[in-house]
Amino acid sequence: MKHSAWFECFAGCDERHALDEIVYRCSKCGGLLEVRHDVAALKQTPASEWRALLDSRLGRQSGVWSKKEMVLPELREENIVSLGEGNSPLIRSDAFARLLGFESVHIKQCGTSHTGSFKDLGMTVLVSMVNQIRSKVRAVVCASTGDTSAALSAYCAAAGIPSIVILPKDKVSIAQLIQPLANGAITISVDSDFDGCMKIVQEITRDGSIYLANSMNSLRVEGQKTISLEIAQQLNWSLPDFVVVPGGNLGNVSAIASGFLLLKELGLADRIPRLVCAQAEQANPLYRSFLQNFESYGAITAGATLATAIQIGNPVSVHKAIKALRATNGIVDQASEAELANATAQVDRMGFFNDPQTGVALAVTMKLAKSGAIPKGSRVVVISTAHGLKFVDFKLRFHQGQLQGGNTSLQNLPIDVPSNIDAVRSVIDGRLFS
After folding, report:
1. pLDDT in tens, 165-215
2. Which of 150, 169, 229, 408 could form a disulfide with 179 if both were Cys (CB 3.0 to 4.6 A apart)?
């Protein structure tokens, strides 16, 4: 069966483009495009056969390219640029479920991917397409608060394609900054925030010779929708009730919704989980719109937040995210700086090592459990977007008591003792029996 996909305006304009065209917005309404698939062709394969086929590939191929028919079917195999992305663990936490009164809680560890974040899932798709049309393109560029730049630089380096990353000065962790530098990207630090960097990227990509790699390019989002397909497989094709996603530029919200909607359309799922978008209180334009039932929306200037990767006040995918949340009967909530820091530390005590963006999602999950918006007995998946090792300064500051509102009972530091067994035993006994 021949499968195909194309770009189409998400707002419904009857404008189509081939996926190898360099185009990001609808020429009629200016809205973002999305990748549309020939679902009728996909449905020619029965759901049982899709399950068997996808399960047969699980763990043997990239988590993205094992689902190539549903992602980028017309890409030539020789142009795939993969670094083993996807197949990230879905870890059950009975301790967290008991705390919240849920039937189950799983944390989808997307940060175990090659560069340490979920951005690899989309970047393998985007860079693979650039690899197929590389005669048209001089370089690939992104604005980034850290993770996108790491993914872009790694995949471009693997393909031998020049990459450019534009970062907000002093707003990216050292662990994130070193990744594009190590991969040889042209790295430009701009005295602005992410939104300012994004404006520059949109200007320098106007003539098409430099390819745009942010989530306003829906090829990125297309790879990220495989998060939903992996969750379905890992739960033996039984979907959760709620999926909680940190929200910054909001491409991931629409991507995950797209994946679940496709599963339902193909008969691989009988229902769709409700999506929850979790925003930092300091960067919450979607939450403000949600309070107005999405009847109005306005960009804001994002304030400083520990969740630096989602410190975005003018997300380019906001209208796609609103559409996705409406389609999934979704919820948007926010977390304060103290809430996200304490939630991160509390769930770390359950065996995890969470980044601050995931901390926002964990804090919102706790708030919605307390309010009853996520009912008792629910099955919940929280999306962890990056590896905690990218944010060791954040975690160290928490345990050193340097974060305002930090719960002192969760702080933990080394204990200095003299070099003798009695001193060591005294500390151990004091901690174990106190």
Report:
1. 999 998 888 888 999 999 999 999 999 998 899 999 999 999 999 999 998
2. 150
